[in-house]
DNA sequence: ACAGGACATTGACCCAAATCAAGATGACTA
DNA sequence: TAGTCATCTTGATTTGGGTCAATGTCCTGT
């Protein structure tokens, strides 16, 4: 929400940088943070590839430039639940912890802008505005996790699917500083299985409910990874929570 | 985990203060924060009483001194999901936001140590260590929310109940700087309905699974609000996740 | 000690989503 | 062009937990 230069990721497009969105990106901030320029590096992952495994050492933090990744947690017997969804401008990594708590998997081709952890933590200690921005982002993530709790605990399969589409549509629109309404197209860089892991369902149920929503005219499918929503309002109603999300938060 | 004086809540008992645990408590920090002394005040709530309603104005932040409270979210049709569980030493309120996002209800008698929001935000801006501690706490809360996602998305009713008991036992032990093992007693300051809202179940299912666990010898009931666990290890196995939680995190 | 009310347990039945099992689609390779 | 493999859809069946409906239990106040 701050309009002046934020050092941690914001959703503002960045003019002077190969990265499309302002992120943890020394380049964007080179005037004040030139000394960090050489700490920045990029990593590219293909769909399905792991960024880190839970309990692996993780010596960097990162910001998503493009693509999508999921944080995933597992029970011994293999039951899997996604516990975080990383979209462009999202932050990855926990300062102060060098061991990954979750497995991070690219669900589509993924580009990360990375920083070594140690200098990042130093930055955090020395720059109150950086720390403040990270706190803000963490609180937003906590709010998102709480909406997700409501989704997992109390929504029907149909509502869950609709909710996921609403979330993706809102996130996509937010990057373009727009508000989704009317007829929109949502790209779905997730397999049915990844959707199931996000929603606490099986992939069969996801597939069935997608078909149901299609038959009900709420969505149209353009291939498997692209959804056309004739009326965003109707989709929001299907999602159960009628809160309109506020002004482009 | 820092052993030196932390300004935001820690789990360390406080020697020179009526509050049992170090919390957002000017008293504990009066040597360096004397000017905030008059900003501190206490509030007491009875079981069932609301601290704030979602969308109400909230002009304070607080730390739980004793008792338990739940953050709760609702769908239009009344379906309710608890999205936060506040135990002693937990922090309540979002700096930078003056409107409550969730309804906060005392599930047992509750004592809060409160601070007016404005001076607290000033403190946050001026004291990097306070901000750092709050970031730390928020990240811990996010981790807890992610375990909760796994619970809601993938665990059976029986595992959910066992998991809740494990969480309560661990939290209670952590305040006493112990690690739960062997035969322990867990106090349960929640109605069956509150447990259901936490776990994404109905109160009938909660009741049934409590009975099942009792019949299986995993727990014994001492009244309705007190559970005896003959073997904590056995309970952890019932909870599904075998991770032993690490050293008193 | 008793009555009332909130909270909890138990039972019978039902349904949404899981499970098991074929097929269909579509992208890539030989 | 055909073949292979991953992904997705659809169908048949099962089941865990929800719903509805009685009881039971334990505080609290009189």
UniProtKB/TrEMBL annotation, chains A, B:
Keywords: DNA-binding, Transcription, Transcription regulation
Domain HTH crp-type: 155-233
Record-annotated membrane-spanning stretches: none
Lineage: Bacteria, Pseudomonadati, Pseudomonadota, Alphaproteobacteria, Rhodobacterales
Stored SMART domains: cNMP, HTH_CRP
Example of a GO MF term: DNA-binding transcription factor activity
Pfam families linked to this entry: cNMP_binding (PF00027), HTH_Crp_2 (PF13545)
GO cellular component: cytosol
Highest taxon listed in the record's lineage: Bacteria
InterPro entries (UniProt xref): cNMP-bd_dom, cNMP-bd_dom_sf, Env_Response_Regulators, HTH_CRP, RmlC-like_jellyroll, Tscrpt_reg_HTH_Crp-type_CS, WH-like_DNA-bd_sf, WH_DNA-bd_sf
Coiled coil feature spans: none
Organism the protein comes from: Paracoccus lutimaris
Residue ranges annotated for the Cyclic nucleotide-binding domain, each copy included: 24-141
Protein name per UniProt: CRP/FNR family transcriptional regulator
């Amino acid at each position: 929400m701050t309009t002046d230069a934020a050092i941690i990721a914001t959703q503002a497009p960045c003019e002077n940088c190969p990265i499309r969105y302002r992120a943890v990106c020394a380049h964007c901030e080179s005037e004040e943070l030139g000394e960090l320029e050489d700490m920045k590096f990029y990593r590219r992952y293909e769909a399905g590839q792991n960024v880190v495994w839970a309990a692996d050492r993780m010596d960097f933090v990162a910001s998503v430039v493009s693509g999508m990744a999921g944080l995933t947690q597992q029970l011994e017997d293999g039951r899997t639940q996604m516990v975080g969804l990383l979209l462009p401008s999202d932050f990855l990594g926990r300062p102060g912890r060098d061991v990954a708590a979750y497995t991070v998997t690219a669900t589509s081709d993924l580009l990360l802008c990375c920083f070594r952890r140690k200098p990042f933590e130093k930055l955090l200690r020395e720059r109150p505005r950086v720390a403040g921005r990270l706190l803000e982002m963490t609180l937003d993530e906590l709010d998102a996790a709480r909406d997700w709790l409501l989704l997992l605990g109390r929504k029907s399969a149909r509502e869950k699917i609709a909710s996921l589409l609403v979330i993706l549509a809102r996130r996509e629109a937010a990057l373009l500083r727009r508000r989704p309404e009317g007829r929109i197209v949502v790209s779905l860089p997730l397999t049915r299985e990844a959707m199931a892991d996000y929603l606490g369902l099986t992939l069969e149920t996801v597939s069935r409910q997608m078909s149901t929503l299609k038959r009900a005219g709420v969505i149209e499918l353009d291939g498997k990874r692209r959804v056309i929503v004739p009326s965003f309002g109707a989709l929001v109603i299907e999602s159960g929570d009628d809160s309109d999300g506020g002004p482009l938060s």
